[in-house]
Amino acid sequence: MSQHDVIIIGAGAAGLMCAISAGKRGRNVLVLDHSRKAGNKIMVSGGGRCNFTNYYVEPNRYISQNPHFCKSALSRYTQWDFIAMVDKHGLPYSEKEEGQLFSDQKAKAILDMMLQEVSEVKAQIQLETVVEKIRQLDLSEAPNRFQLITSKGAYQCESLVIATGGLSMPTMGASGFGYQVAEQFGLNLLPRTPALVPFTLQPDEKAFTEPLSGLSTPARLSCNGVSFLGGLLFTHRGLSGPAVLQVSSYWTAGDQLEINLIPELDLEEHLKSLRHSKPKTELRTVINEYLPSRLAKAILEQWLKQPVLEAGEKGISVGDLSNAQINNIANRIQRWIPNLNGTEGYRTAEVTLGGVDTNELSSKTMEAKKVPNLHFIGEVVDVSGHLGGFNFQWAWASGWVAGEVV
Ligand SMILES: Cc1cc2nc3c(=O)[nH]c(=O)nc-3n(C[C@H](O)[C@H](O)[C@H](O)COP(=O)(O)OP(=O)(O)OC[C@H]3O[C@@H](n4cnc5c(N)ncnc54)[C@H](O)[C@@H]3O)c2cc1C
């Protein structure tokens, strides 16, 4: 029976950070993972460049049934701490939109940095190991210790950390294992749903969007009182892009999504004012001014039922539009309610909403209140970030604070 101070299940972002933090305290740490490689999601993150944190980490960038829970960890291991580690390793990075920090090198550079830190503190990582059974030893055997039966033998540890992530992207090693452990020890679980995920559309709506596939345009997307301004990308299956992914975290089946395709303008007011000042302006000229030409053409022909024009032919002028027509045009373009089919689900979702109820955990140590020495960190917990490096920052922060006490 192999004995360790700490066993961490899951060699992803949170598990590796926890290993570094506990290893720095001189703890004997073993990280187990069923995958062939550690940090699969780090490797594919940020389009291959790993958006590893954000300059503007704030609790309001996280979704959780208890919005206060994330505050403690995020304030004790901050984005500046992670940036300091990246700087120490001399890795170049750049800020993209809104404080999002991406590696200038491939995402592997961030993973290699984490693995080097893990090896410097002499924590071990053992891959391709399936944990078959976990048992808390009783007082007569060895008080406050856990026994793990795995495909590679039996282990004992004083502290057990569950860092197995959420359900998103099973091809990257995701499993519901962390939730099963929570259930085994009587911890409450909150319902889980895919988030930061593209939408799929009903066939009638797809007939409009499919020919636009690959086209990206700025838009404001609103759902359940929350709205995001950013890129909307038409795909073969439906709608994606940063603003779509963001708003998907606030959507549940049956909810309406509203899309404003010209967010910088009050189109109704604009058309009415042009009707007086420049009545001969063609409607298609106005629409083309604010939308990519392929999208403008599709809207004019399919939504606004304007005839396909030959070269030299003139379309309807704004001076000929009635108030009702202007109102209808503005509604179609600025209050588009797509006929949604659902989302692409865990296959492509970046994160999982819900998970281990934060009421069951200490926000300072991530330890289960009912089960001493059992900790849950990272995405398995009911804390999910917005797009933009916030999810990794939660993984680093929750992993670090647990590592300080295990
Ligand atoms: C395509 C994609 C791109 C992303 N890009 C970004 C980004 O740029 N910035 C950002 O902040 N966030 C990004 N995210 C989200 C981010 O990757 C996650 O929030 C983060 O990885 C969660 O860390 P974690 O350690 O909790 O879980 P994970 O990183 O998922 O790690 C969990 C680990 O546990 C292992 N595991 C699972 N089940 C078992 C089991 N039964 N036994 C043993 N081991 C197990 C897995 O193999 C894995 O190694 C992205 C996600 C995806 C899918």
UniProtKB/TrEMBL annotation:
Ranges where the RsdA/BaiN/AoA(So)-like Rossmann fold-like domain occurs: 4-404
Domain of life, source organism: Bacteria
Keyword Hydrolase attached: no
InterPro entries per UniProt: BaiN-like, BaiN-like_dom_sf, FAD/NAD-bd_sf, RsdA/BaiN/AoA(So)-like_dom, RsdA/BaiN/AoA(So)_Rossmann
Domain RsdA/BaiN/AoA(So)-like insert: 194-351
Record-linked Pfam families: HI0933_like, HI0933_like_1st
Cofactor(s) recorded in Swiss-Prot or TrEMBL: FAD
Keywords recorded for this protein, A-Z: FAD, Flavoprotein
NCBIfam families (UniProt xref): aminoacetone oxidase family FAD-binding enzyme (TIGR00275)
Protein name: Aminoacetone oxidase family FAD-binding enzyme
Species per Swiss-Prot/TrEMBL record: Oceanospirillum multiglobuliferum
